[in-house]
Design a protein that fits this description.
Elements: H1 4-7, H2 27-31, H3 33-37, H4 49-78, H5 82-106, H6 111-118, H7 130-139, H8 154-163, H9 169-179, H10 186-189, H11 201-212, H12 218-249, H13 261-268, H14 274-282
Helix pairs in contact: 4-5, 4-7, 4-9, 5-12, 11-14, 12-13
Length: 283
């Protein structure tokens, strides 16, 4: 004898679920899925090109969120709203955890599979990502030479140029130290923010004061650790990028003309919050 519960298919409408969406907001409408899912346009017949496109598109979506959260965290630090800033920075760290996981999927593609469609990429390359550039600018790595790949998009270049006029996330963190009575070198607080911050012993000393008495300076101590946590994930993302590229193309030049793996290895040496790493040595 059959079980009545198994013979009658489940109908969500019986519990009040909305099933008709003529003229009403649906899941696909809200997320604009038609636009998103129609954005994968392989240029070859190679099976693995779809993986390559989706991996990079989803990475750009995660970077879109990272830009949004880093900007908001910087504003919160500037306004002494540290609890929201901590939440945002924690979220950015988790975003980069997701970006790190994406390399694991891309690494399922072999060199032979990538070779089948690599020529169809033309001169396009990940180092041309304007969102990645904005993240670096927001964090303080402000290489003006990297504006040039965006000359053909005046609105993007203008956005990046505007970012260079504002203090970076790290600049705002150092200004916060000064507002809370921690001595910070005047030349750091008054520096040209359009340039990359360079490590200074005086700033290492500022963080040493915080780290030597965390109970007294707990909000600043927590901010320091949120920044270190984020840079840790960021460094892993860069490292995974290098190893993925080497695994798939070896030491070929990048499609955008960079040196490929050697170029990416140089990026591993870039420190976003240098004194927060150096302070560990002097404690």
């Amino acid at each position: 004898m059959s079980d009545p519960e198994q013979s009658c298919p489940y109908d969500p409408a019986a519990e009040g679920a909305q099933m008709a969406f003529d003229g009403r907001m649906s899941y696909g409408d809200y997320l604009q899925l038609d636009r998103i899912l129609d954005a994968q346009r392989p240029r070859s017949t190679a099976h693995d090109e779809m993986l390559f496109i989706i991996q990079h598109q989803t990475s750009e979506l995660w970077m879109r969120l990272a830009v949004y959260e880093i900007r908001a965290a910087r504003d919160a630090i500037r306004d002494d709203r540290l609890s929201p800033a901590f939440k945002m920075l924690s979220r950015v760290s988790r975003v980069f955890e997701q970006l790190n996981s994406a390399w694991d999927v891309l690494r399922t593609m072999t060199p032979s599979e990538y070779t089948k469609f690599r020529g169809d990429l033309g001169q396009s390359s990940g180092f041309q990502s304007h969102q990645y550039r904005e993240i670096e600018y927001l964090l303080g790595n402000r290489n003006r030479a990297m504006l040039r790949p965006h000359e053909h998009r005046p609105e993007i270049r203008a956005r990046l140029e505007e970012e260079l006029t504002r203090p970076s996330l790290y600049d705002e963190a150092l200004r916060l130290l000064a507002r809370n009575g921690i001595p910070v070198p005047a030349e750091v607080l008054e520096r040209d923010v359009s340039q990359t911050h360079r490590p200074q012993d005086g700033v290492t000393e500022s963080w040493r004061i915080v780290y030597q008495d965390p109970d007294r300076h707990w909000p600043l101590y927590e901010l320091a650790e949120k920044l270190v946590d984020f840079e840790d994930y960021f460094r892993r993302w860069r490292f995974n990028h290098v190893t993925t590229v080497e695994r798939i193309i070896g030491f070929k030049r990048g499609t955008g003309g960079t040196g490929g793996v050697p170029y990416l290895r140089n990026m591993l040496a870039v420190e976003l919050f240098p004194e927060l790493w150096r302070v560990r040595t002097v404690l």
